[in-house]
Every structure is written in structure tokens, then in C-alpha cells.
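Researcher: I'm preparing a figure for a lab meeting and need a structural model of a single chain. I don't have an experimental structure, so a prediction will have to do for now. The sequence is pasted below. Please return the structure as C-alpha cells so I can convert it later.
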Amino acid sequence: MTPKELLKEIRRIHIRSSHLANDVLAGGYHSAFKGQGIEFEEVREYAPGDDIRSIDWNVTARQGRPFVKRFREERETTVLLVVDVSRSQEFGTAAYEKRGLAARVAATLAFSAIRNDDRVGLIGFSDHVERYVKPEKGTRHVLRVIREILTLQATGNGTSIATALEYLNRVARRRCVVFLISDFQDTGYEQAMRVARRRHDIVSICISDPREADLPAVRFIELQDAETGRRALIDTASAAFRRAFHRRRTAGAETRKRDLRRLRSDSVELVTGQSYVEPLIRFFHAREARR
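Model: Understood. Here is the structure written out cell by cell.
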């Protein structure tokens, strides 16, 4: 992508994402994520109408009369976009590659965040952390984040979600809302996710392409693994092979969904060539309803 093409792409994403954040998704992000964190403020004597669940039993026992804890809602949230920029993200058979979809989703979330006066940061990763952008506010900062997602060239040869989450725990000392955007072509990240979930609110956004599960019947085609470089010649004219390929990919996706549920990470499934707006709206509404 030339500098001129990059500028046009960033401008298109900016216009579209700003519209979504200000109009279509207005209120959804705020309802789903604002006020997630609370800070202790004081202990005071119980008054009629106070929630009995807020009683501080230790102070109550010492004083001989009931006391309650008071908390103050944190008005400012830090949002960290943990984005997979590995070579598998360069695959795409629809209007744009998986990385292009990741950039659009990240931009929509980032503009929603700054609209609510939150800070936004970026961790771009492959099999190691490729780039860290500290959380800040403002449109100019979000445009820089979009540019980084679109232009980062992976120097690693694989994907390591665990490495990205371990780095997250080192740089983010306070609770953050974390959007983990990846095709999740990785394994062995469960323990790192479990540790990160203790401190942060992690939402996994899983991106896939239709051709990753359904092969076209076009006889012989050569496939190459974008990360390892391994090549394989396959005969897609075989209906049995196509069915087996589909079953294997579908089973892998279902396993990932079960694992994320078990790890208590909310997840959103997105597919290149399909709308990402409706899944985000449904997700925001579901979170709001749970709260």
C-alpha cells in the first residue's frame, strides 16, 4: 500500500468509524463498559435504605453497630486494543483481508472510547509484541493507532496470544477493558488468559474468512501457510475432502468458543465480507442486559 493509498484508507475508516461511534453505537459502549471499575472511598455508619451487602463486618464488629463501605465509580476507563498483526491476518477473500477488518473494528471501538472520554492504547503482536502504543485520548491518537494496525509488518513467524497477554499484565497495572482481536490460530494461551482475566475485562473478537472453512471445488490448488511457509497441493474436487476440511475447521471454532466461555471471556465472532456492526450491537446489548 502506497502512502497515498494508506491515507485514503485511513480517511475512509475514520469517516465510517466516527459515524458508527457517534450514531449507530451511541450509548451502547457507554452502557456496556462505563463504570466497570470502582474505587473505595470511605466507611460510614449504616443508614436505613443502605444495601446490606455493603456492610463492612470487620468495622461493624469492632464498633458494635453497623457500618457500610462506600465506593466511587471510576469515570475514566483505559481501553487496550490487543491486535494480532501476524501474517495469517493478511489472508482474505472478501472485500478486505482479516487485518483490514481488525482495523475497522478497532477503529470503531477506539472512537467509541474517546467519545466517552476514555484513553486508548495498542498492543500489536505476532509471536512476540511488535508494537506498544501507550493509552492516550483524542482523535489524532486514534488515527495513529489505526495506521499502526494497517502498516505493522510482522517480524515474527507465528502467533502467540499468551505472549501478548503476559505483556499486557506487565504494562497495564490498573484494570483495563481489553479487546483481543485475532483469528485465534494459536493454542496454549489458556493460563495467560486466566491470569489476565483476574485483573482486566477481556473481550475476545474472533476474525475469520469464509474460505478458511469452505474450500471451492476447483480441482487442484496449492495452499501455503502464511506463517510457516509450508505448502500443500490438494484436490478440492473431492467432496469428501471438502466435507472433512469443513468439519475440522468447524470443530476447531466450537472448541475455541467453549474454551473462551470457560475462561469467562466474552467473545464476538466476525467474518470478512459480512457486517461487523450488527454483531457489535448485539454484544453491547447483551452486556448491558447482564449488568
